[in-house]
Amino acid sequence: MILHNRAVFALGLRMCSTQVTKGALVDTAKFNSDMSEFRQVFSKAKHIAIITGAGVSAESGVPTFRGENEKWRKWLSQDLATPEAFSRTPSRVWEFYHYRRELVMSKKPSAVHQAIAECEARLRKQGRSVVVITQCIDDLHRQAGSKHVLKIHGSLLETRCVSCGHVAVNKRSPICPALKDKGAPDPDVTDAQIPVDKLPRCEESDCHGLLRPNVVFFGETLDSHILTKVEKEMEICDLCLVVGTSSIVYPAAMFGPRVASRGVPVAEFNLQTTPKTEYFKYHFQGPCGTTLPPALAPHESEVIY
Ligand SMILES: [Zn+2]
Q1: Binding site residues for Zn(2+), as ranges?
Q2: Where residue 146 sits, what CATH number does that domain have?
Q3: Domain Deacetylase sirtuin-type, which positions (predicted)?
């Protein structure tokens, strides 16, 4: 069984997205939404893995660019966040990411980010651990105070040189003079068509290579060092929460089911059911800003220091 799971895990390392299924797949009456039962499980858990997705960023007002109503100009992120789009139209892709960088730098952590960070800090004092495994590319978990964060899809606030591979934190606004006031999302805005030598460039000595956002584009493989850490967390966790993710982007979509397959309780917190809901022991429906904070609040049996 372990080998089988490992094989499935290995097959899914390339980031891809499956079709969004409209509407609820399963009768909601079948779900276990018993919060007091979940809280009993939570009170005994020693290693908690919390997988978060775009729904958590959305609580802070960060758009996902994954729905018809969330296009940037006339594109979804699947159209622009690809290696092909970046090599064909680096100026347009940089405008898109410049817009997203400026946007996330203006946002604050939500009640969800805060509840997760507070839970990690509190449980650490009790000798228990919380790890956040996030698909979000903003920095809001860290801003809220989460220490143990694995960012499987990279970071909007980091760059990577396409020539020398150097990765650097970059919170400059704008990231380069040519992108100042560019990136407006309205559908009638035309491309700025910035010459490639005016786009963000590497500052390592003698390199000057083109920089790209240090995010995982669709069709690219995930960082193997991060995935090794994720795999270890999946093996040791005794409770897993899947929060604000539609479970359609792989390989993250199979982390929860993989944990559930070893008999570990998994709880899903999402606006609606997902293609993976049936694998999970608990499903709490609604905005995660409403459902998650009470789930992670201090339990009466906890010793609070
Ligand atoms: Zn370089």
Answers
A1: 161, 164, 202, 207
A2: 3.40.50.1220
A3: 28-302
